[in-house]
Inverse folding.
């Protein structure tokens, strides 16, 4: 897994997906606490491996090769790795959310139930925000969260996202949050 794009976030690393992540992603997305809020991530191990190799890794490469001019067509999917052990503990991603109006670049994430409430998710999101706002031409990011996903709402708010409106997607209500680059710059801790 040499030469993979990585963001250092202190106790954790964000690292682009590799085929070796298949078991970690599969186990994570099989947790009811994850697939309840991210049902599109539910899959068999074979489907997940196919998606990693044929969709997610090529999309990551296309996203990274387009920097700084992100065109909104590709996703960047990053594993959250615990530095101390090298263990896959979650993911933090960005990409277009078709159900939102332009600019529709979204942040999405999931953390293993075994590593929650330790600040890792907030560190991951802040690390990705810093990279996107400092290294790309992205000027606005979105986050959508189901209202009953209280822990995710806390992460989004800690990271500076501001509530815009409730929206409906596939018969579910989501809270839609936005973070503009200027607001991020004004709130950023130096």
């Amino acid at each position: 897994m040499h030469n993979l794009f990585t963001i250092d976030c202190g106790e954790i690393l964000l690292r682009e997906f590799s085929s070796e992540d298949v078991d970690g992603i599969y186990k994570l997305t099989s947790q009811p606490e994850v697939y309840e809020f991210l049902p599109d991530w539910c899959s068999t191990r074979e489907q997940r491996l196919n998606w990693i190799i044929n969709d997610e890794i090529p999309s990551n490469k296309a996203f990274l090769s387009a920097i700084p001019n992100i065109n909104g067509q590709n996703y960047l999917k990053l594993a959250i790795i615990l530095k101390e052990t090298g263990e896959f503990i979650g993911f933090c991603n960005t990409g277009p959310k078709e159900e939102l109006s332009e600019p529709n670049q979204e942040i999405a994430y999931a953390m293993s139930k075994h590593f929650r409430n330790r600040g890792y998710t907030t560190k991951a999101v802040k690390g990705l925000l810093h990279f996107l706002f400092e290294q790309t031409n992205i000027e606005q990011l979105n986050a959508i969260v189901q209202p009953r996903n209280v822990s995710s709402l806390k992460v989004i708010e800690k990271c500076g996202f501001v509530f815009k409106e409730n929206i409906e997607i596939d018969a579910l209500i989501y809270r839609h949050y936005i973070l503009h680059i200027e607001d991020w710059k004004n709130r950023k801790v130096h």
In short: Strands lie at 6-8, 12-16, 76-82, 87-96, 105-111, 140-145, 162-169, 172-180. DSSP finds six helices and eight strands in the chain.
